[in-house]
Structure formats: C-alpha cells, structure tokens
Amino acid sequence: MSTTATDFDLAAVRADFPVLSQTVQDRPLVYLDSAATSQKPQVVLDAEIDFLTRANSAVHRGAHTLAGEATLLFEDARESVAGFVGARPEQLVWTSGATAALNLVAYSIGNATLGRGAPESARFALAPGDEIVTTEAEHHADLIPWQELAARTGATLRHIPIRDDGTLDLDAAARVITDRTRVVAFTHVSNVLGIVNPVAELVALAREMGALTVLDACQSVPHLPFDFTALGVDLAAFSGHKMLGPYGIGGLLGRPEVLDALPPFLTGGSMVTTVTLDEAGFLPAPQKFEAGTQPVSQAIGLAAATRYLSALGMDAVAAHERRLAERMLSGLRGIDGVRVIGDASGVDRVGIASFEVAGVHAHDVGQFLDDRGVAVRVGHHCAKPLHARFGLTASVRASASVFTTNDDVDVFLDAVSGVRPFFGVSS
Fold first, then answer.
1. Tens digits of per-residue pLDDT, 81-129?
2. What are phi and psi of 34, to 5 degrees?
3. Which residues, at least 6 apart from 74, have a Cβ–Cβ distance to it below 8 Å?
4. DSSP letter for each residue of 130-177
5. For a designed S-S bond to 324, which of 29, 96, 371, 400 qualifies (C-beta 3.0 to 4.6 A apart)?
6. From CA 288, how far away is CA 9, in angstroms rounded?
7. In sequence order, which residues have a C-beta less than 8 Å from that of residue 261 and are 6 or more positions away?
8. What region holds the Aminotransferase class V domain (predicted)?
C-alpha cells in the first residue's frame, strides 16, 4: 500500500478486509457501522490464528518453550500498542475493553476511598462534598461508573452541557469545574456527534483545580493521530474492536505516578508478589491491574491492527475520514426531513454522522437502509442522556473507517433520500 501524508491506496485497503466482498440483500455491502465495531483486515485475523496454532500458552507462567514464546509475543504486543498511542509499555494496562478500563479507574478510586492501597493512594479518596464532572455527551461506559462511584462515596456528580450545535460549552465547563472537583471524565470524540472535544482546554481547567482527568478515547484512537503523553490527561481508555482489532481487548493508559498510586481493582493470580492466608503484596503497574488469565491472542491481534494503521499513516486516515464526514454531512443536510444531530460547522470531526428522519422511526430507517445493503446503527448508541438533550429517544448513525469510499457514502445518501417517500411521509 502506497501512502502519503494525506492519502493511501483505498482499493488496496478494501482488498485487505474479507468481509467487504460479500453482498447483503443481493447488494454490495456498504458497512457504515465502524463506530460500533470495525471490520478486521486479514493481517489481524492471521496474527491471532498464527499465535493460536503455533505458540498458544499461558503468559508469565511456566518455564517451557511455548510459555516463553507466548510471554514474549504478549509483551511485544504491549510495546507495539503503547507506541501507537504515544505511551511507554509500562503505561498500558490490558483490559477487556474501554468499559472495563473505565470501571477499573472508578472502582480503584473507590478502593482508595476505603483506605486500600499504598499511602499515596489516599490522594484519590473521595468524600461528601467532593465532585466528579462528566459531560452530557458521554457514552454510558463513561457515565454509569461515575454514577456508581458517587453513590458509594457520597461525592456529587456534575455535568458539562452541550450546546445546540453539539459542541461542548466551555464557558459552562469553567463554572462546573471548581476547587471541589476531584475527577473530570470526558470523551475525546462523541460516538453520536463525531465532534472532537477540546482536550487541552479541559485538561487546563482540571489541572488548575488539581483534578484527575480521565479520557474516553474509543472514537479517537482509531481515527486520529493519538499521543497520550502530548494530550496531558492522567488516564485514557480505548477499545480494540473499534480500531480494526479483535473483540475482548482494550487498554487503560496512565501516567506512571497515577498508575503507581491507584490501588488494584480485580485481584487474584498473576498480579501479586507475596501471598499469605491473611494478606498479599502486589506487583507494580501495569501487572497489578492484570489479574487472572490474559487476552493473549487478542493483544497480538491488536498489535497487528496498530501496525496496519501505522503503515497507512494516521494523518492519512484522519484526512480520509474527515473528507467522508464532510460528504456525509453535506448530503444529509440536503435531504428534506433529515436533521443532523450536532451539526456544528468549522469543528474538527471524525467520520460519524447521526440524524433523524422526520416522521419515520430510526429502526424503520435502519431496516430500509439494510434492505439496500447499507449497514448503519440505530438506537440511542449507549448515550441516552445526549439523545434526551436533543429531544430524541433514538437516531440513525453512519460511521466510516479506513475502507469506506465516496461511493459507499453516495449509496447511503441515495438510500436515505428514499426513506420518507417509501413510508409515505410528506413535508
């Protein structure tokens, strides 16, 4: 595949994804649901199969040849993935996905509140009067864990509002984040709006108040150049299956001093130093957060996905998907009865567009599009409060990836334009 700073060989990329060769309803598949789960290139599938057929064994255990090779491959994968996101290997904790990573942080803070962990863990303890701040745009995975933490500790949960155009209200953020704020958790890119949030501004507000920053990077790591260190957040979560990788793998990134101070959440084998019948000592991060059997083949597959994306060039990926986003949004704006959710202009975006079709339920729109070979997401996309903010219970979401073409977008737009006439809905 030949690449430049802004482009790559799209035909060659599409040939790398076996699933794209199939038809749906006797039509070529147009897959526009990558924000939910991305398709996998052959190199990712091959990487997992190669490990499972050649070196399958438990890692960090045993002295036999397969165990040693599995451990080496597993830790090599950590190095590859960490490098892809601008971190060092010891800053990457393997999890089953972003939901597990965000829950890990929330429950670790809860454990610190109970007095667990090393003396430095006390800095994370919460008490009544302390505040946790999120935004109206959060995925449930970056909202409910904080609801639960607030309920367990007596802390108060507050939210930064979203403007009518879908952008974050930074003026309100400056009022919501106060000297009582202990945690600021926010999404890098909304999975509904596709808008890139102003990380630097939010980090500055939180840092001024001494608050911990937690970033949901699920929709940014696959689509934008991502440098954890440069972003300045304390912790960040991402998910493998949204970035061309396997299911059941994701990661938590953390600044070393934060990971070292947080107490463990899950406990058991592989994360301990000494154990007696009454107490245990824990390994340093990241291993102290990695109890039990590890997702070895998945980590190896995810490393293959990051190498694939790196070969394309993330600047090229971002430019490609930005063009697709503009094409989707421009086309949707021109269709009678269609309202784009978060239709801000002049903002940085990834290839996500969510919308409603007046007079037609989102699920009916989705079925209509599926009959024409177009796969989109329908529902609240695990962001019910955001939909309520815009007076909706559900929307239709189209989301692009590295393999999406202009023709895919045009087929999608043509199908959307036929929805209201098909259902007999007039303006």
1. 999 999 999 999 999 999 999 999 999 999 999 999 888 999 999 999 9
2. -70, -20
3. 59, 60, 294, 296, 299, 300
4. BEEEEETT--GGGTHHHHHHHHHH--EEEEE-B-TTS-B-HHHHHHHS
5. 400
6. 42
7. 117, 118, 120, 121, 123, 124
8. 30-412
SS3 224: coil
Sequence-distant (6+) residues with CB within 8 A of 361 are 394
Cα dist. 382→75, 139, 185, 277 in Å? 33, 5, 16, 42
- Give the Cα separation of 104 and 97 in Å (integer): 11
Q: 361-416: per-residue pLDDT in tens?
A: 999 999 999 999 999 999 999 999 999 999 999 999 999 999 999 999 999 999 99
Nearest to 132 by CA among 108, 109, 114: 109
H-run or E-run covering 185? strand 181-187
Topology match between the domains 10-39+313-423 and 48-309 = no
φ, ψ at 256 (rounded to 5°): -55, -45
| Nearest-angstrom CA–CA distance, 403 and 244 | 11
Domain 10-39+313-423 - what CATH class? alpha beta
For residue 243, what is the DSSP state? T
Residue 161 buriedness (CB in 10 A; 0-12 / 13-18 / 19+): middle
Domain boundaries, the chain: 10-39+313-423, 48-309
The pair of structure tokens assigned to 316 is 């090229």
Q: What is the pTM of this model?
A: 0.96
Distance of alpha carbon 81 from alpha carbon 354, whole angstroms: 30
Selecting among 382, 405, 410, 418, the annotated active-site residue is: 382
Amino acid at 71: T
For domain 48-309, which architecture applies? 3-Layer(aba) Sandwich (3.40)
For residue 351, which of 380, 382, 317 has the smallest C-alpha distance?
A: 317
Cis peptide before 222 (omega within 30 of 0): no
Place of tokens 């000592």: 281
Q: Residue 218 catalytic?
A: no
E-only strand ranges, 240-344: 250-254, 272-275, 280-282, 338-340
